[in-house]
Design a protein that fits this description.
Blueprint: H1 6-16, H2 36-46, E1 53-57, H3 64-77, E2 85-89, H4 100-110, E3 117-122, H5 130-140, E4 144-150, H6 153-163, E5 168-172, H7 178-184, H8 206-214, H9 220-229, H10 233-236, H11 241-265, H12 270-282, H13 290-296, H14 302-314, E6 318-323, E7 337-340, H15 343-350, H16 359-377, E8 384-389, E9 397-404, E10 407-413, H17 426-432, E11 438-445, E12 452-453, E13 462-466, H18 467-479
Parallel strand pairs: 1-4, 1-5, 2-3, 3-4, 6-8, 10-11, 11-13
Antiparallel strand pairs: 6-7, 8-9, 9-10, 12-13
Length: 495
């Protein structure tokens, strides 16, 4: 006898799909503010001439389910029969015991309707052989359009590589940008010049830059809160920040580290995984040495540490920034920097008091946030992201390096009251190196009055930009569809 019968599945599906009975029910689940990923997913789902499925990848609470609800709302508004739309999440205990094929078959038995069917499956990595099923459905059922989500990106990407070539695209969803945060809260936004790009700031006069920076003054407190709460939509809308951080720790971190990662990647030592993630939070933005970590964490093997690091990266909890060559300075090899996927995650785990008054901690938070924004902006482009550190001088470092085919972009974070850099700093030396291929360099500062070209007379000018302005403009540019995969709309250009 089957553990789960059809009647139980039908009951679950009816609960998840209230629009079958009352079409307006979706309005209660859908949110008015839409992220860039919504438009990309909707375009993929409804494209008239190119049929492709979409897979949305991102950690818990980044808004994947909300995007699905918003798409359902749009489809119903466009006249699609609500019963032609199926939503299900395989995070559900009952649906975990069956597979996608069973769910679709039971649904079609319930409603044997004609026309295009829209299938939206949440946390699809929990259903057995999902990628093979999607391949079969794509090849045999031209009447089905499908979007799936998952919290473990490379699990999804492997399926895409194995079976999904030409059939579906994987869209990564990071936590919200600072611009999206401001939009979600319906704040009074700065009145910026139309289509402003970061590349244009270097040609502005000091007076123009001053007027621009003044626009961000009302957002300063919100920026501080963004660093503490992060880019998780539901938590951003909370009126209790302490509770939001608790939810971040319990509902995002704990569920991913203590449940998702363990089940998806066959982790043998759950306690070691917890200790490793805590270790990474304590050493975020620092160069990671697997040998050192293995000794400090129960003298475990380097192989185990490496595999656990990979699992955390696959689960969208961390970024691995690889060392990159820039110019002739001799870069460090082999050792990545670890960035937690959102600065607020680190805050929630470590529970540091008065973090906003701690210059070192605040600097790490902003560096993490800059890296996250850069990764999101250049997603899908030919860019490579990492950091630079001189092999023979550990003090010579550039926090973020973006490498494109004909150019390199340098970002150095100095989020402190005094953003002074010396002539011997790595970013200055690299901007003097004609073989570095550096085309633009940014010194990311704290104060809104700390902006403009640095005093160093380098071949490539180094532009001081307050963090709040840089991140807002970068996020706004991305939301407008002018991302790093658009050849004419890079963050900077090589003109």
């Amino acid at each position: 006898m089957a553990i789960v019968n059809d009647e139980q599945i039908i009951k679950v599906l009816r609960q998840y799909n209230p629009w079958w009975r009352t079409p307006s029910a979706i309005k209660e689940e859908s949110k008015p503010q839409k992220r860039l990923a919504y438009y990309e997913a909707l375009k993929t789902l409804t494209h008239k001439s190119i049929r492709r499925f979409a897979v949305l990848s991102g950690m818990r609470r980044v808004g994947k389910t909300t995007i699905l609800y918003q798409i359902i709302d749009h489809l119903i508004d466009e006249g699609v029969n609500p019963r032609n739309i199926l939503y299900a999440t395989f995070d559900n205990p009952i649906l975990k015991l069956v597979n996608a094929e069973n769910v679709l078959s039971i649904y079609e038995t319930m409603y044997p309707l004609e026309g295009t069917r829209y299938v939206l499956f949440d946390e699809v990595q929990y259903t057995e052989n999902w990628e093979l099923w999607m391949k079969v459905i794509y090849d045999s059922r031209k009447d089905i359009r499908l979007i799936a989500t998952g919290s473990a990106s490379p699990v999804l990407e492997k399926g895409s590589a194995d079976s999904g070539t030409g059939r579906w695209s994987v869209l990564k969803i990071p936590t919200m940008s600072f611009y999206e945060y401001c939009r979600l809260l319906d704040l009074d936004l700065p009145l910026l010049p139309a289509d402003l790009r970061l590349s244009e700031l270097k040609s502005m006069s000091p007076a123009q830059l001053g007027d621009l920076m003044d626009q961000f003054t009302p957002l300063q407190n919100h920026f501080n809160r963004y660093l503490m709460i992060g880019g998780f939509p539901e938590l951003v809308l909370s009126d209790d920040d302490a509770y939001a951080q608790r939810m971040l720790r319990e509902d995002v971190v704990d569920k991913v580290v203590k449940r998702d990662v363990l089940s998806l990647f066959n982790i043998r030592s759950p306690l070691l995984m917890e200790k490793l993630f805590l270790y990474l939070c304590m050493n975020s933005t620092e160069i990671f040495n697997a040998t050192t970590a293995a000794k400090e964490l129960e003298n475990t093997s380097i192989t185990t540490i490496d595999s656990y690091i990979k699992a955390l990266e696959m689960s969208n909890l961390i970024y691995l920034a690889k060392p990159m060559d820039v110019g002739r300075k001799g870069a460090l090899k082999g050792k990545p920097k670890i960035f937690i996927a959102d600065a607020a995650i680190r805050n929630a785990v470590l529970m540091i008091d008065d973090v906003l008054s701690d210059e070192k901690e605040l600097g790490a938070m902003v560096e993490t946030t800059v890296y996250k924004h850069m990764v999101s902006f250049y997603q899908g482009s030919t860019a490579s992201l990492g950091y630079f550190r001189k092999a023979k001088d550990n003090q010579k470092e550039v926090d973020v390096v973006v490498e494109l085919p004909r150019q390199k972009i340098l970002c150095e974070v100095k989020y402190r009251n005094n953003s002074h850099i010396a002539a011997t700093d790595a970013i200055v030396e690299l901007c003097q190196d004609e073989k570095s291929k550096v085309t633009d360099a940014f010194l990311i500062t704290k104060r809104l009055d700390d902006f403009g070209i640095t005093k160093h007379e380098t071949m490539v000018p180094i532009l001081r930009v307050p963090a709040i302005a840089l991140l807002y403009i970068l996020g706004k540019t991305e939301a407008e569809g002018k991302t790093g995969n658009c050849s004419n709309d890079l963050i900077v250009d090589a003109r």
